[in-house]
Design brief:
The protein is of the alpha/beta class. The protein has eleven helices and six strands. β5 and β6 form a beta hairpin.
């Protein structure tokens, strides 16, 4: 017991230099009234709801969405790249770890009851289980995943230290049991929402409670530097998640979060009315394209199109047309 208390004191000292991103405690300065969805409903014939990825892809390249939805073109089969594999690996590890830790924290009433050795064992065991599952599907990535595993364990342990620190503060305010868990953990993981009425669907990485409302969180596993501004495609993705969560919960959702797991930073994003309208305009543009079957103008850019699975098709079009847009 004395050894555990010593470890906890060391953790608290380390945490003094760490900025704990707020979870479930964000507040907005924007004034939003109750929103209805009569003006957001789809008016055209809907073959299926559009995904958050398709809304993003349309901004990136309308031709990409045209080939996928209108033409039903199957992309060229390519080997999974390392970023996709490692991203999926980390997402699955995080999902399984949260499931295992929830019960442990629900019974956490005194600091002496939190066994940090058990916590470390849970992290390592869960990552090992997920790794073995992934290597059955992708044996060629064994060395890469093993190297990534070491870094992931370090990052997850730092995050767990932060969670312990936050739990201590909540306990000091007599917040225990289920209420404690709801403040420390997402209430839903990998949550899919399909909203036919507004023609959108998406899968949200994590959802946190925010007083009487909710906050969707998207986890980015490949970004190692944090820019001041979030790119437009990520903003659209978060906006779609907020629209879907509003539709499902009938609550105003005006904040979203992005967690950059490689650098342990969280960024909060205000979801404005302008962003909502932009998403609905893109949705309608895609539906117009589906209805008209009209092919969009080809805009080929080497930098943007380098890794696209439809790259060869567009190059063929350029070759036949004798034009290339750079």
């Amino acid at each position: 017991m004395k050894e555990e208390k010593k470890i906890m004191r060391e953790i608290l000292i380390e945490l003094q230099a760490i900025r704990r991103p707020s979870k479930g405690r964000l507040s907005s300065t924007q004034d939003y009234g109750p929103r209805g969805y009569d003006d957001a409903c789809v008016s055209k014939k809907l073959i299926r709801p559009l995904t958050a990825s398709e809304i993003r892809n349309y901004v990136h390249c309308p031709m990409l969405v045209y080939l996928q939805i209108v033409k039903g073109t199957r992309p060229k089969i390519i080997e999974p790249n390392i970023y996709m594999i490692l991203g999926s690996f980390e997402h699955k590890c995080r999902e399984e770890i949260v499931k295992k830790l929830r019960k442990l924290y629900e019974d956490f009433e005194k600091i002496e009851q939190m066994d940090v050795i058990i916590l470390q064992q849970i992290l390592r065991q869960t990552i090992e289980e997920v790794k073995l599952s992934f290597l059955q599907e992708c044996p060629a990535f064994e060395i890469t995943i093993e190297d990534y595993e070491k870094d992931l364990i370090t990052r997850l342990w730092i995050e767990e230290n932060q969670r312990i620190y936050q739990a201590i503060k909540l306990l000091e305010n007599d917040i225990t049991g289920f209420e404690l868990v709801e403040n420390l953990f997402p209430i839903k993981l990998e949550h899919e929402i399909i909203a036919h009425k507004i023609g959108l669907k998406g899968r949200i990485d994590q959802i946190f409670r925010n007083d009487s409302s909710f906050i969707p969180l998207d986890i980015k596993t490949s970004i190692t530097t944090l820019n001041e501004k979030i790119d437009e495609e990520t903003l659209l993705q978060l906006g779609v998640y907020c629209l879907l969560l509003e539709y499902e919960t009938e609550k105003d959702i005006d904040l979203a979060e992005v967690y950059f797991s490689r650098i342990l930073k969280t960024k909060s994003i205000s979801i404005t009315r302008e962003l909502r309208l932009e998403i609905l305009e893109i949705r309608d543009a895609i539906l117009d394209m589906i209805e008209s079957q009209k092919e969009p103008e080809l805009q080929f850019e080497e930098r943007k199109c380098k890794f696209c699975q439809f790259r060869d098709l567009c190059l063929q079009k350029i070759s036949k047309g004798g034009e290339k847009n750079e």
